[in-house]
Amino acid sequence: MGTTKWTQLWLDYHEVYKGEGSWKTVLTGFSDESPIVSNALLEFKRGMEKLTGEQVNGSDNSENALTLEITKNDAIPAEGYHISGSDKGIVVEASDERGVLYGVFAILRQIACGKRAIEVSESASPSNPLRMMNHWDNMDGSIERGYSGQSFFFENDEIIIDDRTRDYARFMGSIGINGVVINNVNVKSAASYLITDRYFDKVAKLSEIFNEYGVKLFLSLNFASPIEIGGLDSCDPLDKKVISWWENKVKEVYDRLPLLGGFLVKADSEGRPGPFTYGRTQADGANMLGDVLKPYGGIVIWRCFVYNCTQDWRDTKTDRARAGYDYFKPQDGAYNDNVVLQIKNGPMDFQIREPVSPLLGGLQHTNQMLEVQIAQEYTGHQIDLCYLIPLFKEVLDFHTHCASEKDTVADVVSGRTMGNKLAGMAAVINTGNDFNWTGNDLAAANTYGFGRLSFDTDLSSEEIAREWIRLTFNLPKEKEDILCNMLLHSREIYEKYSSPLGIGWMVTPNDHYGPSVDGYEYSRWGTYHRADHLGIGVDRTDKGTGYAQQYYKENAEMYNDPQKCPEELLLFFHHIPYTWKLKTGKSLIQHIYDSHFEGEEQARGLASDWDKLKDNIPEEQFDRVKHRFDLQLANAREWRDQVNSYFFRKSGIADEKGRTIY
Amino acid sequence: MGTTKWTQLWLDYHEVYKGEGSWKTVLTGFSDESPIVSNALLEFKRGMEKLTGEQVNGSDNSENALTLEITKNDAIPAEGYHISGSDKGIVVEASDERGVLYGVFAILRQIACGKRAIEVSESASPSNPLRMMNHWDNMDGSIERGYSGQSFFFENDEIIIDDRTRDYARFMGSIGINGVVINNVNVKSAASYLITDRYFDKVAKLSEIFNEYGVKLFLSLNFASPIEIGGLDSCDPLDKKVISWWENKVKEVYDRLPLLGGFLVKADSEGRPGPFTYGRTQADGANMLGDVLKPYGGIVIWRCFVYNCTQDWRDTKTDRARAGYDYFKPQDGAYNDNVVLQIKNGPMDFQIREPVSPLLGGLQHTNQMLEVQIAQEYTGHQIDLCYLIPLFKEVLDFHTHCASEKDTVADVVSGRTMGNKLAGMAAVINTGNDFNWTGNDLAAANTYGFGRLSFDTDLSSEEIAREWIRLTFNLPKEKEDILCNMLLHSREIYEKYSSPLGIGWMVTPNDHYGPSVDGYEYSRWGTYHRADHLGIGVDRTDKGTGYAQQYYKENAEMYNDPQKCPEELLLFFHHIPYTWKLKTGKSLIQHIYDSHFEGEEQARGLASDWDKLKDNIPEEQFDRVKHRFDLQLANAREWRDQVNSYFFRKSGIADEKGRTIY
Asked: pLDDT grade, residue B55 (50/70/90)?
């Protein structure tokens, strides 16, 4: 592991060229006494010295020194920046300190990607007001759905603050993240006490470190706090005693944690307490907290992941996919303006392929933000390579038809559609205290990528991938192309060897790695494929569960008709015979066989592509990733053979190409 | 839970009649200074006072007092007894102290079952030399496959000795158990140190308490002890350093634990260390320990549960069922005379229906004992009612054809076939520190039943059930018939609603409660049903894995032919089309549907039969069991519907009776 205890991820710059000269810095309208500005200058110094080998010295007065000029310009949008290079140096203009920080990181990124100082040029401001990371870290140090070691925030019910904390904040600042929820949405045990004196000092310290890189700290909240830590007998959001308890509690919290952004709440979900217990709506619960937080400028982020998780598999009327819309749509418009609903990208749960949640844009008068998961819960546990930015791009580009223009998910969650300010994107993060932060070194592309994409949803998957590669590795162009190509195809490859055409699940129960075709078929989780000897898929049309009707007309009609439904989602919306002819002319069953053989073969291609980079990647890092590919190949083979065998045994239809199926 | 912390199980006698008079006791050839004899007298006093309300007083000299006369008679076989009542009292003759103890318990049993003192009469001696219980208790207090609470032997890596210990020993003595292994066969962590100074004093104390009820204490051994606690770099059984280490260790052990019976060893199984690691045979391992134990009269019980637990499901040549015979048969005759092989009843793992292991009797020159499991790992977790004595009887009555006479399993494991002394039966026990010892009160019928059956393999399932009912409850005859009937049919009912015709498995992985038809189908455990759209079952004939050929000719021919194979084992030995006609005239698929509907219906019958006993069972106890039946019904329904749906979806063949299948 060398001498350091963790890597510097994409901030471990490599020398790109010898510099044009030394640097001095000039501030106009900003003060280097501000921690954010001061950190921006520090990052510039650290970065430029590594990138160009030149000295950066604020007090350099030599005639030849280039100037980094940081200037206040109130015409620049909040958190935005304008950077421009010339033969005298580089000017950063911004209207606020975050803009300065982001502008400096943008300079470093451009230079790392090969630009000379004189060529630096960009005007940018964030697509989304909120750009957040959600940690599912528990205070015992474990991480729910974590595949990168233990928490670096918590251990044995204590908060950890060390050099790693600051590095983490730097990483977040460098990719434009402005909010972080440090604790798991499932708030239990010690985590319920994060809003008590037991932890205030350390949480405050964390919030200060974050703040110095432009990041607001948020806490996940236990909705049952009035009972669990307050000693009340209720947490009914309309109960005056409960409201009064929250008023006192939040006053105390903001006295001690003035930098707190607000609360994230998972209520009435998978066994968590919530307003439904008291016959109240989700809006009653969220608004009560919103009212209480209002005086302090705090916000409530309320998750929409509410469904019946004790379904009877025999029940084909109930449809988990419907639940979010059914529960939240009726109160559209009733939510406080400091409440924002956080909606998962799909109606199920972060499968490799799902339709976009009909709540996104379906809510027309409610603040909303998009939740995605870069922790690879269902997408390979950071063992299998799965660059998720293409998936997120598809979601963002989806036309909801909620308006005649500005109707994409990107429009909706940025606030462009409704003109609202409380909007954005959040990711369940994939980090832990592993040496490389993300288990698989290549999984950091998702960490980096989510930050960059949430800052600028117009960036392409490839642009983001190339930025990350250039910042992280030191590869000649042809090797960069190989790695970029690996990333860009990895999601499609994972999809090919796992569950077919949008049906999802088929994973090992609980663990969610590796195949178990019937693993969730006879369960209480609402997760069924309904395969029999003739066909497979869930009828969610107007003749089935009616889920397709939750979309606006254009989409509803598209999804309702198996001929118009995008084939990659065919089994999500329709029960289809194995003999059904796809647009390729292949039968459904042959498609299942072919895609699984292809996916496994292409996974082997990924592994052999990685081998081509051996000479250009530090040995330890190369070997770490290579070991992951070995595991991925075993996984891909298991998926291929179990899925193919399952459907061959069930349908009795042979593979046209006569390949081995068991 | 009342005022006591645990029940007295079948020793909580009820008054059967007012006695004929008070009792005095006379010893001839035995001394009441012997703890066993003294306990026998104590049990007689305690029992008779509760059963008849009469005083039992050793020094009673009144003319009318009846006499319990205990007399040494060397003509009685070891551990046997002769009891006979007259108008003067009852005489117990025995050649040893265990015989006295067992004779006294036999008197109490007969009186509890309604006999007058004058009617008491029995000559008995144990069918099996070894009659053992195996605890799978871990030293952290957990019990592997335990469904009755935590261990009452261990907690937090310490040994518990309290009143419960003595009661446990009494229960064991009362049913003729003469050996108990207190710790799990998977010996890890602190349990490896049971043979060190850290625990000697308490183990010695336990062994004394056991001994006072005729029970020898045994320990499960970690075969890797020379490495784990000895600091050697090997546990190769042929390595002189290793042998020397064991010699010293065993000397130390017997210095400190003179009452120790010996060791139980699970080697080379499911990740446990063993001789295979060093290229040695199982015999090499067992004999090394046998040699070392010989000077102390200790024995080695060596488990035969050795198989490849990392099988590839695609591999249809390897057959877990073959493994025991393949591994152990070649060394038949090579085992020391103080080594006994402990063989599970079936070749797989305690399924609700398996053929008898071909090792039983297949070994012709090796000490062997039968292992069964009364912990209901695969048979309902002591939630579902499953009286297992009928299953054990089938195993004992099975003709192995290893000899022209005395060829049943009962003959083989009793030593009758080969004339050997080291032989017998062992059960993985179903107890824990629950108030009622066995989770489900009715599961104690298996605890009691195993003891009685291992003492006298000629007892019928019904005789044992009635004894247990009369000792445990206080029911009028018609209610006793109901309960007896429930017990006697419960295994058949469980079999009907779970996996069909001997195929086994189909349980939730790891947990082993409830259905998951494909749960073990694509796994590494060698546990497959190979169902496709046309049929189901594993071909273990001479054209398949050849497992059937491990039996003697008569059985091999029977199992090899689907027409001759007992239908309850059809799918264990053959891959059979769903359309195959069974002897009932039903197709295989219709049998699957019918038996599952029937099984669920009959489970409801069990629950409603229990309700009929409401007025005759103490309320707390009645409710405890009733709650279990509620859970059993949910389980039976889940089994019924998942199995039927699975096969309907796979075969496409409808139920002839048009019942609901999902």
From this structure: confident
Q: Which residues of A touch B522 (CB under 8 A)?
A: 515-516, 638, 641-642, 645
Spell out where A73-181 has E strands.
Answer: 81-86, 89-94, 121-124, 130-134, 154-155, 158-159, 179-181
pLDDT tens digit sequence for B313-328:
999 999 999 999 999 9
Are A522 and B531 inside 8 Å of each other by CB? no
Most A-contacting residue of B314, B530, B579 (CB-CB within 10 A), to test interface: B314
B568 confidence band (pLDDT: 50, 70, 90): very high
Residues A417, A401: Cα–Cα separation, whole Å: 11
Structure confidence by residue, pLDDT tens digits, B136-183 = 999 999 999 999 999 999 999 999 999 999 999 999 999 999 999 999
Nearest CB partner across the interface for A518, out of B518, B648, B652: B518
The low-confidence residues of chain A, meaning pLDDT below 70, are 1-3, 58-61
Cα-based distances in Å from A466 to A12, A46, A481, A572, B439: 16, 22, 8, 33, 61
Give the model's pLDDT for residue A1.
38
Looking at residue B1, its pLDDT comes to: 38
Sign of the CA dihedral B426, B432, B433, B435?
negative
Chain B contacts in chain A segment 484-523 (CB below 8 A): 515-519, 522
Pair type for strands A81-86 and A23-28: unpaired
- Distance (Å, rounded) from C-alpha A298 to C-alpha A291? 10
Q: Which two structure tokens, joined as six digits, stand for A110?
A: 């451009």
Rg (CA), chain B: 25
CB contact under 8 A, A533 and B650: yes
Contact B533 A533 (CB under 8 A): yes
* CB–CB contacts below 8 A, A to B: 52
Closest residue in chain A to residue B314, using alpha carbons only:
A662
Exposed / middle / buried, residue B316 (Cβ in 10 Å: 0-12, 13-18, 19+): middle
**Would you state the pLDDT for residue A635?**
98
Selected residue of A313, A638, A640, A649 to mutate for chain B interface (largest B Cβ count, 10 A): A649
Rounded mean pLDDT, B354-378: 98
Distance CA B118, CA B90 (A): 7
pLDDT at B63 over 80: no
Residue contact B518–A522, C-beta within 8 A: no
A314 contact residues in B (CB cutoff 8 A)? 641, 662
Residue type, B203: V
Q: Which helix (H) or strand (E) holds B321?
A: none
Beta bridge partners of B37: none
Q: Which of A314, A531, A533 is nearest residue B651 as measured by Cβ atoms?
A: A533
Predicted confidence at residue B2, as pLDDT, reads 42
**pLDDT confidence tier of residue B273, bands split at 50, 70 and 90:** confident
CB contact under 8 A, B650 and A645: no
Asked if the C-beta of A317 comes within 8 angstroms of chain B's C-beta atoms, the answer is no
Give the phi and the psi of residue A59 in degrees, each rounded to 5. -105, 15
The 8-class DSSP code of residue B114 comes to T
Beta strand extents in B257-367 (DSSP E only): 262-265, 299-303, 339-344
Ramachandran region of residue B658, left (φ > 0), alpha (ψ -120 to 50) or beta? left
What is the ipTM score, two decimals? 0.90
Q: Which residues of A are catalytic?
A: 270, 349, 377
What are the DSSP calls for A178-244, one per residue? -EEE-S-SS--GGGGGGGSTTTHHHHHHHHHHHHTTT-EEEEEE-TTHHHHTT--S---TT-HHHHH
pLDDT higher than 90, residue B557: yes
Q: Which two structure tokens, joined as six digits, stand for B71?
A: 């007399």
Please report, for residues A9, A356, A610, A639, the alpha-carbon distance to residue A380 in angstroms, rounded to integers and kept in the order given: 21, 21, 17, 11
Pick from B510, B522, B528 the residue to mutate for testing the A interface (most A CBs within 10 Å): B522
